[in-house]
Design a protein that fits this description.
Elements (H helix, E strand, L loop, with lengths): L3 E2 L10 H7 L15 H4 L1 H15 L7 E4 L2 H15 L5 E5 L4 H12 L3 E5 L9 H7 L4 E5 L13 H10 L3 E5 L18 E5 L10 E5 L25 H16 L1 H22 L3 E4 L9 E6 L4 H10 L2 E2 L15 H5 L4 H5 L1 E5 L6 H21 L1 H13 L2
Parallel strand pairs: 1-11, 3-4, 3-5, 5-6, 6-7
Antiparallel strand pairs: 2-8, 7-8, 9-10, 10-12
Helix pairs in contact: 1-8, 3-8, 4-5, 9-13, 10-13, 13-14
The structure holds pyridoxal-5'-phosphate (PLP).
């Protein structure tokens, strides 16, 4: 059976070039870059090359790049590190639609006595920036607002947010885990202080991440110990994964515009066909202020999990809500925050594409999805009732 992988916001395939670049560092080149001897020490130069490749993707200085173990660690390091370095300020601003890596931590910090303001979003998933203005006070230590939402792909205007946060004297962290490699990120233009990236969302392996720290930002390290990463993140460097992430960033940078155009065309083709062929379907999130690869669709009176199971039997991989919430029957906190009605939030399905998807992939989903929806609607008591009501109204 063929596999059509449309769940790239959950994780991506490791690019063959990345796999190849990493190979020697699992084999003969196993040294420790901190060693004095040449065998290990020469790897320090490879790590620095990877740091430059990451910096180039986001137009930063290599000295502003810290390698971490994942996006979650980068988020934690940014948030804990900022709060610890300004202990007098006890207020955090974030949003209701953050990934649990940020939202869960902020909720935990609220239990520890921090005041946490969660900004709301409207029906299209957009923030009201006046709400941010009202929330910012001299007590605000940190604002943590994601660049792109993992479920809907909705983009927040981080450049405007950064200006507002800077003039209020607070630190801005952005979780750019879903944006890196998909959106242009230019640290010379957008004055964020801290930015998180995760390797496995851009064709590097799972278990490697980056925290960008703008020069001059005060940050207490999360991991304290050895002097690696210039004392900002202790722990022996994960050399193969760092080299893999560097290569992945280089690939994302070099084919950036053409890949975005390819992915956007396929996503729009899929989305337009599904919205027109599946009755009762609506798009979740703003139509244009959105990542090019993501399409979140809700289908009335149908369980997203049921759609996923039937798609899975055909080898089609998608997601209902975020990967981290699927498996629980709670509707997605993102869709609920957007005011998507309970029945629609339960019937949500997310397709997320990558450079490796093809027209054949999309055609396969378009061919099968309407039949799946019809089948589920036929067996759903709510769907049947709705259909009966609709036909009863007909003259
Ligand atoms: N932030 C966002 C927006 C994400 O989508 C994810 C993963 O899904 C994370 C953070 C966590 O990244 P990682 O899996 O590398 O810990």
């Amino acid at each position: 059976m063929r596999t059509v992988y449309l769940d790239n916001n959950a994780t991506t395939a490791v690019a063959p070039e990345v796999f190849e670049a990493m190979g020697p560092y699992f084999g003969p080149e196993y040294g420790n870059p901190s060693s004095i001897h040449t065998f290990g020490g020469k790897l320090a130069a490879r790590v620095e090359q990877a740091r430059e490749q990451v910096a180039t993707l986001i137009n930063a200085d290599p000295s502003e790049i810290i390698f971490t173990s994942c996006g979650t660690e980068s988020d934690s390091a940014a948030i804990h590190g900022t709060l610890e370095s300004s202990p007098a300020k006890r207020h955090i601003i974030t949003t209701r639609v953050e990934h649990p890596a940020v939202r869960g931590l902020c909720q935990h910090l609220a239990e520890q006595g921090y005041r946490v303001t969660e900004l709301s979003v409207d029906r299209q998933g957009l923030l009201d920036l006046d709400e941010l203005t009202d929330a910012l006070t001299p007590e605000t230590a940190l604002v943590s607002i994601m660049w792109a939402n993992n479920e809907t792909g909705v983009l927040f205007p981080i450049d405007r947010i950064a200006q507002m946060v800077k003039s209020a004297g607070a630190v801005l962290h952005t979780d750019a885990v879903q944006a890196a490699g998909k959106e242009p990120l230019d640290m010379s233009k957008v004055p964020v202080d801290l930015l998180s990236i995760s390797g496995h969302k851009l064709h590097a392996p799972k278990g490697i991440g980056v925290l960008y720290v703008r020069r001059g930002t005060r940050l207490t390290p999360l991991l304290i110990g050895g002097h690696q990463e210039r004392g900002r993140r202790a722990g022996t460097e994960n050399v193969p994964y760092i080299i893999g992430l560097g290569k992945a960033c280089e690939l994302a940078h070099q084919d950036f515009d053409s890949e975005r155009a390819h992915i956007r065309r396929l996503r729009d083709k899929l989305e337009d066909a599904l919205l027109s062929k599946c009755p009762g379907s609506v798009l979740n999130g703003h139509k244009t202020q959105r990542l090019v690869n993501t399409s979140s669709i809700s289908i009335e009176y149908i369980e997203g999990e049921a759609i996923l199971l039937l798609l899975d039997r055909l080898g089609i991989c998608a997601s209902s809500g975020s990967a981290c919430t699927s498996g629980s029957l709670e509707p997605s906190h993102v869709l609920r925050a957007m005011g998507v009605p309970f029945t629609m939030a339960h019937g949500s399905i997310r397709f997320s594409l990558s450079r490796y998807n093809t027209d054949e992939d999309v055609d396969y989903v378009i061919e099968h999805m309407p039949g799946i929806i019809q089948r589920l609607r036929d067996i759903s008591p709510f769907g049947r009732n709705k259909a009966e009501k609709v036909s009863a109204k007909k003259p």
